[in-house]
Amino acid sequence: MKQPLLLLASLLLVSTAQAQFGVKAGANYATLSKENKSSNYIHPKGRVGYQVGVFYEQNLAGRFSLVPEVQFSRQQLDAEVVRFNFPAEDYHAQYQLKLSYLTIPIMLRTHFGRFYLEAGPQAGFLLAAREKGQERTLSYLSSYMGPDNTTYFDRSATADFRRFDVGICAGIGVKLPAGFAVGIRASTGLIPIARDTQTTIDDNHLRNQVAQASVSYQLGG
Fold first, then answer.
1. How far apart are CA 125 and CA 93, in angstroms?
2. What is the DSSP letter of 161?
3. What is the pLDDT of residues 146-180, one digit of tens each?
4. What is the pLDDT of residue 147?
């Protein structure tokens, strides 16, 4: 009985020694990609945001390692929405959208000396969404020179978006001395982020698309 227990303890110690915890932070550039290119009345424009997180690298056979991560990601973008609804009303909105996600990528890394390539799936959980800007409607039955009917808003939009997102990621990086590393990564969503309801964004084909650059530090590196 003692021998299997000692063997199991030895394996756990070796596994722990080969695994490294780390922290990371960096900037991101987020926008939205569209599956249905005919939905051209929404014009997203990316903005710079940020992400911070922790990770755990477990060495596998040879040059491979598995790296699960947990990140807080603030994704920001500008959007212009134009709808033509003749003979009723036209709608025009310009606003900034902020999406806060808890993301969990699970990356498989292949090492080439200090350099590495990585790829894997990512799950995302929406924590909050907020939109700030202005909107205007114009009736064809009224004069274009009528009174200004612009409305300004700064409101929560969490209910307009799906709470769960899933995507794929790929990136490259280089490990530096003293446990530091730098990397770049791109991710794209696989499911629409907007709910099938009448919202400001009002398009059920929009998917997250994010590019990241980060600096990381591994404990015991």
1. 27
2. B
3. 555 788 889 999 998 999 999 999 999 999 999 99
4. 53
Distance of alpha carbon 166 from alpha carbon 124, whole angstroms: 6
Alpha carbons 32 and 185: distance in angstroms, whole number: 16
Q: Minimal CA–CA distance to 171: which of 134, 210, 200?
A: 210
Element (H, E) at 181: strand 180-189
pTM of the model: 0.80
CA gap 155, 199 in Å, rounded: 12
C-alpha triplet 181, 183, 188: angle, nearest 5°: 150
Q: Which residues of 50-65 are buried (b: 16+ CB within 10 A; e: fewer)?
A: ebebebebebeeeeeb
| Greatest extent of the chain over all pairs of C-alpha atoms, in Å | 90
Residue 64's SS3 state is strand
Partners of 125 in the β-ladder: 102, 164
Query: Partners of 70 in the beta sheet?
Result: 54
In angstroms, rounded to a whole number, what is the distance separating the alpha carbons of residues 19 and 21? 7
> Is residue 4 reached through a cis peptide bond, with omega within 30 degrees of 0 on the bond before it?
no
Cβ atoms of 51 and 208 closer than 8 Å:
no
State the amino acid at position 62 in one-letter form.
G
| Burial status of residue 168 (CB atoms within 10 A of its CB: 0-12, 13-18, 19 or more) | middle
Map tokens 């794209």 to a residue.
Answer: 188
Q: Across-strand partners of 80? A: 43, 94
> What's the token pair of residue 210?
């994010």
Average pLDDT over residues 202-210: 78
